[in-house]
Design goal:
130 residues; mainly alpha
């Protein structure tokens, strides 16, 4: 597999064949080489990995959202961050709620469907997300 590039979709089979620590390592290496230093490098890379995993596992709502955000003008890398920001917000709000199960996943997908490039850009400007 070639080095990780967030602006290119990894081949799903090759991506999923990697150990999770290898995925995170490749993402971290890309960011380091690009001079990108998020506040928490490991968390940032882990979120990239989760979203890439969802895409490789063919979660249609995630794939459709990423494609829509790119069509709205975000780079693929920015779109990964936008989806990751919804995931983080979703997890943060719901971490204490046990037994929500499928409803929590449906909430995540509903939030992804309402995500827009302009909305994410404004949020990112205000909060400096992942």
């Amino acid at each position: 597999m070639t080095p990780y590039d967030p602006d290119q979709t990894p081949e799903a089979g090759a991506w999923l064949a990697l150990d999770e620590s290898e995925r995170i390592g490749r993402i971290t290496a890309h960011h380091a080489a690009a001079g990108i230093t998020p506040p928490n490098v490991r968390l940032h890379a882990a979120l990239h990995a989760v979203v890439e995993n969802q895409i490789a596992e063919e979660m249609e709502t995630v794939r459709e959202t990423l494609a829509r955000l790119c069509a709205e003008g975000l780079t693929r890398h920015e779109a990964l961050h936008a989806v990751g920001s919804v995931l983080v917000a979703h997890l943060t709000v719901r971490m204490g709620r046990r037994g929500k199960g499928r409803a929590a996943v449906d909430d995540y997908f509903r939030e992804l469907r309402s995500l827009t490039a302009d909305g994410w850009r404004e949020h990112a400007r205000q909060k400096r997300t992942i």
